[in-house]
Specification:
This protein has seven helices and no strands. It is an all-alpha fold and 210 residues long. Helix 3 runs parallel beside helix 7 (192-209) and helix 6 (176-185) runs antiparallel to helix 7. It is elongated, with a radius of gyration of 26 Å. Residues 82-96 have a biased composition (Acidic residues).
């Protein structure tokens, strides 16, 4: 009888040790996450803040989809031009490229300028994305936030940072729709107007992402 009690007591003590170790690991992980969040927050406070732009995700496309819920519409921003001469780079590097700038037509110049100056409305972005649906490629899906970071113990800042990453990824993938459509068209007949439309809308979506 004594042997049975000793064995049970030994197992209970071992279980208590394991639980204690797990609790220490959980506490350590929470502290590490909080420390990372604080460092990220400090870096964000030190960096100049650019206007925040929010996109509306489309749940219809499987390509590079993170299943992110709908976000607010984008807000207008200006073309990013630096006034700091030090950021313009070495003029000699540009001269050595020996490249002649492209002289765009008035129509194309207006397209490129407006694409990088204006932000698409939520409806316009949805319309462009639906006009050029991407293929159903499972391998191109963006990584999702690990389930361990979705628990109640994880602070809001960590989840917010991941949501911002999802927004940026979605915007950067938008131009791929028209470009993939153009790539696919080389295997079939396509008119110049259709090709021009695909390229024009890819530029609009790229400008919207910048």
């Amino acid at each position: 009888m004594s042997t049975s009690e000793d064995s049970s007591s030994s197992q209970s003590a071992a279980a208590d040790k394991i639980i204690a170790q797990l609790e220490k690991m959980e506490t350590s992980l929470e502290k590490e996450i909080q420390s990372i969040s604080k460092r990220v927050r400090r870096l964000e406070e030190q960096a100049p803040h650019s206007p925040k732009r929010r996109a509306t995700e489309s749940s219809s496309s499987l390509w590079a989809d993170r299943n992110t819920p709908g976000l607010e519409s984008l807000t207008d921003v200006s073309w990013p031009v630096s006034d700091d001469e030090g950021e313009q780079g070495d003029p000699s590097e540009t001269e050595n490229l020996d490249q002649t700038p492209i002289q765009l037509s008035e129509e194309n110049n207006q397209l490129v300028t407006s694409s990088f100056r204006e932000v698409l409305s939520s409806d316009s972005r949805k319309r462009l994305r639906s006009a050029f649906p991407c293929p159903s490629l499972q391998d191109t899906r963006c990584p999702k936030l690990d389930s361990i970071f979705k628990g109640a113990s994880i602070n809001k800042e960590t989840k917010t940072l991941d949501a911002e990453l999802a927004r940026i990824q979605a915007l950067m993938h938008d131009p791929a729709g028209p470009l993939i459509r153009l790539l696919h068209s080389f295997d079939e007949e396509i008119s110049n107007e259709e090709a021009k439309l695909a390229i024009s809308n890819a530029i609009r979506l790229l400008g919207n992402a910048s």
